[in-house]
Design brief:
The structure is a single chain. By secondary structure, this protein is an all-alpha fold. It is built from eleven helices and no strands.
Length: 287
């Protein structure tokens, strides 16, 4: 009788726990995805848990930190995929996953140290991912800029205005982060925002020196009423020069970067191969 009663209580506890988890996922695990982009793959894998932790620990995210996360998401092009709260929830999920992995691999003596280190690294990892994503996006923008500026220059020289030139460049250039930003500028202009303000907002979103320089030159040309074709051609030449300089810099950095692996891995193996016959000859000779 007692065993049956305990089994019934355990079953009811499990049912209540499952129902509580279900209600938690229904009430806190979802998010309004209207007019939102698809979240990154890592966030999609734990999307309900990300939203649960984001809504539960929203009080821990101060307003200045929220604005800082929003600026980083804008630079990475993830503004319409993740909110600052969801990004913070992803950091919490990553911290929990890192702590669990570290504890599983650590011994009992290092339990607390592994817990702290795994949780800390997991909490920092989304920031590293976002920074790398921003760098890749900026590099794609830098590579696409010269051809984009050439199309806009030719369009303006053929009689189109700046808005028409931007639209023509969107039609002719390959899809990419730069075209996403230019499309957004064109949508804002069609919605009624002044073109100068739309360009400045794009420069603020990207916070990338080549784009800031381009927008500054365009805005100055617009306000002064000067011809934009020479300005755009000079900007195109400058962007190409920057690309070549970046390639030369990476080529000069390659030998320095190879020095570490060369000393740590290749040199020891070379010394072992050269020294083994000599050592064996000394051992065989009785020395």
């Amino acid at each position: 009788m007692n065993a049956t009663f305990i089994a019934v209580l355990v079953g009811l506890s499990l049912v209540l726990a499952i129902f509580a988890c279900y209600r938690l996922v229904v009430e806190l695990g979802g998010a309004d995805d209207t007019y939102r982009d698809r979240p990154p793959a890592g966030f999609r894998l734990a999307w309900p848990l990300v939203n649960i932790l984001a809504n539960t620990f929203a009080f821990a995210l101060s307003e200045p930190r929220k604005q800082a996360y929003l600026a980083k998401l804008r630079r990475a092009g993830q503004e319409y995929a993740l909110t600052p709260l969801q990004f913070f929830g992803g950091k919490l999920v990553s911290a929990v996953a890192g702590a669990c992995m570290a504890v599983a691999l650590a011994s009992d003596d290092n339990f607390f140290l592994a817990l702290c280190m795994g949780g800390g690294l997991g909490f920092i990892y989304p920031n590293i991912w976002l920074s790398d994503h921003t760098k890749k996006r900026n590099l794609a923008i830098l590579k696409a800029l010269p051809f984009f500026l050439d199309i806009v220059t030719l369009s303006i020289e053929s009689g189109l205005n700046l808005t028409g030139g931007l639209q023509k460049s969107v039609d002719k250039c390959k899809p990419g982060p730069l075209m996403v930003e230019i499309n957004r500028v064109l949508r804002e202009v069609r919605a009624g925002k002044p073109r100068v303000d739309a360009l400045r907002d794009m420069a603020d979103r990207l916070d990338y020196p080549p784009m800031s320089s381009l927008v500054s030159a365009l805005v100055q040309g617009e306000l002064m009423g000067s011809s934009l074709a020479p300005i755009l051609r000079a900007q195109s030449d400058q962007r190409r020069t920057e690309r070549f300089q970046r390639a030369e810099k990476l080529a000069m950095e390659a030998p320095v970067k190879m020095l570490g692996p060369l000393i740590m891995f290749i040199f020891p193996c070379t010394f072992i191969v050269l020294g083994f016959p000599i050592a064996m000859k000394f051992l065989n000779s009785g020395m």
